[in-house]
Amino acid sequence: MPALPKLYGDIRSRATRCLWAFYEMGVPFEHVPLSHGSGETKTPAFLAINPAGKTPALVDGDLVLTESLAINLYLAQTYMTPLWPRDKDAQMHVLQWTFWAATEAEPPAVQLAIHRVIAAPEKRDPAKAAQAEKSLAPRLDHLDRHLEKSGRYILGDRFSFADVNVASVLNFLRRAKVDMTAHPHADRWLRELEVRPQYKKAHGFD
Ligand SMILES: N[C@@H](CCC(=O)N[C@@H](CS)C(=O)NCC(=O)O)C(=O)O
Hints:
By secondary structure, this protein is of the alpha+beta class. It has helices spanning 15-25, 44-47, 68-78, 88-118, 126-150, 161-170, 184-194, 197-202; strands spanning 6-8, 30-32, 57-60, 63-66. The protein has a four-stranded mixed sheet with strand order 2-1-3-4, covered by helices on one side.
């Protein structure tokens, strides 16, 4: 029997993005919950998998893959889930929104998360948090306007990897106390995704 795909990274890391993807697809996998804060990602054994010493990493047969959102795109295409559309244009829209998440949304989102949620209180810089929130606002406007038109999900009626990848980057907004009243469609969409059982399982909330 072929080995199961192996995902490295614990639930306090971006591995949650890939855990969520696995649970949504219902594909069996092996979870190796390495903790990035404890030196476990800097051992020779793990550095042989990801020389950058970061999680998540995926090993599937001969393939070794890093970058959380790329892992999700690989899973989507390899395991032929309904979350990966068959239509080429829709597939390109999943890529478009995934790149948007990585390049437009994630840099300010991570700054905001660090300075409002993740760092020890004495290490948080309120000015940096405010700057990140300001930078995020037009991006949230863009997503909000899109969701106003598209409807329930990013691709319209169908839940897809566009939703998983974008929401994975923005899912801490409520914890960071971002005021979402100017972004009601994005707010509604995030709240709906966060109550999915697969989302809760990936984040250890179940
Ligand atoms: N762009 C990468 C970021 C990976 C990353 O920074 N992972 C963090 C955990 S969320 C990590 O392993 N940090 C350990 C370190 O930087 O040494 C991805 O999306 O996978």
